[in-house]
């Protein structure tokens, strides 16, 4: 009973964070805002939900060899998400900056505007 409550303390906020990431991805207008909505709360929500699930599985009465394999897969899932999420966000943000995929001019601040100078866009003869 106590472990069920503890696992729910992890699972419910995690589910809320994953849901808010999905809503943010659908509602935000600019690419960088969507990247922020996908990476931060989604990864945190996944870690919380997996933690709650591990607590629930390890304290079950019929915990056996097969459940140990399931826990290993969940740990690998969390490690993979923690390794790939920042890299994906960095790459998508870099492409958005290079291509100017920020949205309309009214949505941009001074720091959001694409750089006017880029070494590869420079005329090599002049």
Give a quick account of the main beta sheet: strands, pairing sense, barrel closure.
Answer: none
Q: What percentage of amino acids are in beta strands? A: under 5%
Number of helices: 3
Structural class: mainly alpha
Q: Spell out the helices and strands N to C.
A: HHH
Give Rg in angstroms.
21 Å
Distance between the termini: 75 Å
* Low-pLDDT windows of residues: none
Number of domains: 1
Estimate percent helicity.
over 70%
How confident is the prediction overall: mean pLDDT?
82
Question: Which outline best applies?
Answer: elongated
What does this protein structure show overall?
The chain is 71% helix and 0% strand. The mean pLDDT is 82. The N and C termini lie far apart (75 Å). The radius of gyration is 21 Å and the shape is elongated. Helix 2 (31-58) runs antiparallel to helix 3. The longest helix has 35 residues, at 65-99. It has one domain. With 126 residues, it is an all-alpha fold.
Task: Fill in the keyword field for this structure.
mainly alpha, 3 helices, 126 residues, 0% strand, single chain
Give a nutshell description of this structure:
Belongs to the CPA3 antiporters (TC 2.A.63) subunit G family. With 126 residues, the chain is mainly alpha-helical.
């Amino acid at each position: 009973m106590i472990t069920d409550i503890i696992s729910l303390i992890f699972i419910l906020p995690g589910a809320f964070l994953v849901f808010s990431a999905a809503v943010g991805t659908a509602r935000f207008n600019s690419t960088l805002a969507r990247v922020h909505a996908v990476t931060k709360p989604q990864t945190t929500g996944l870690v919380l939900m997996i933690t709650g699930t591990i607590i629930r599985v390890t304290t079950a009465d019929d915990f056996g060899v097969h459940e140990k394999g399931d826990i290993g897969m969940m740990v690998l899932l969390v490690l993979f998400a923690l390794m790939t999420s920042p890299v994906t966000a960095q790459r998508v943000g870099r492409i958005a900056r290079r291509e100017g995929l920020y949205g309309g001019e009214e949505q941009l601040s001074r720091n959001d505007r694409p750089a006017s100078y880029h070494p590869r866009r420079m005329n090599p003869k002049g």
